[in-house]
Amino acid sequence: MVIDAGLNVPAFFTSRAGGISSAPYASLNVALHVGDDARAVAANRKAIEDLAGVPVSFMVPNHGITVAHVSVAGQEPAIADVLITTTPGVAIASQAADCVPVLLHDKASGAVAAVHAGREGLYAGVLDAAVAALLDIRGGWTARGEMSASIGPAICGRCYEVPAQLRQRIAERHPIATASTSWGKPALDIPRAVEARLGQLGFSHITRQRACTFEDPAYFSHRRDGTTGRQTAVIVCP
User: Whole-prediction pTM value?
Assistant: First the structure.
């Protein structure tokens, strides 16, 4: 299953369906680091590239704020939680299995970005790093409203239980992330915090998918399944 990201450039999110990997990675796993057969991952990535229509550079996230630029189609990127390109026809992709995949497009410069926004990345400022890099490309802070964002499926605040002390630490920077699970335990709502922070950073057009990866078996969820695959979010520079 492919979900259109709702941006003015080719961009989409995938579910776990449509690949060839076997359980517990069934079936469209794009991650090489989770123990899946490398040949199956390669075939799955090729299927994603067929959907994108061009070779795709797949992120290797590290739960940080590092930004890596991609200039050649299919280029293997450095380890980073933000990929950016300004080269027409180049596709970049994040991967996640509960963390928040975010796709960004700056109409002013034509640049696009793929972001992996986990709990620690959000706290450290991964969204701020991505936006700063996009603004650096365009050469200024003017007309930020020309930036658009799409937030993909991720674990929701009803399901993402964390220790109370951890919730308090994240909430010091992102109070809106404070949540409680459906069973009454401390939790974090990272997708809600991502949406709020993008608004604070000047995004006037934000699309958000509401599917919860923990609740919906159509998606990979590390919190639910432990050993599992990763879905992806892809954007192509126009």
Answer: 0.97
